[in-house]
Amino acid sequence: METFAEEKQSVTNLPQTKLEEFEDVKEEAVMTTLRSALDFYSTIQADDGHWPGDYGGPMFLLPGLNRDGGWGLHIEGPSTMFGTVLNYVSLKLLGECAEGGERAIEKAHKWILEHDSFQKFVNK
Fold it and tell me: Exposed/middle/buried for 65, CB within 10 Å: 0-12, 13-18, 19+?
């Protein structure tokens, strides 16, 4: 798998486009900026067409698990149904088992059942 450390060389050497606060944007400036952006993204695109990343899977999600078994909207936030269900489903899709990862799936499942608004939503 190709990583960001193995970036391809840039194909073009386009100048940086800078505009003053009230300057009119000209088509040439837009085209130069677009070409530069496309050139940049082509350097980090893998040969098979995807853009590799450093996503750590379950190890990225687990630190946000609260003591009550849920997840908040951010890493220090109180547990919410949205955050908990989003992380629960993500862990399931990533193949995490109930006993793995600090028993996060088991704890999240319990939290969801105790705060049954998700169950009510699904059953409608």
Answer: buried
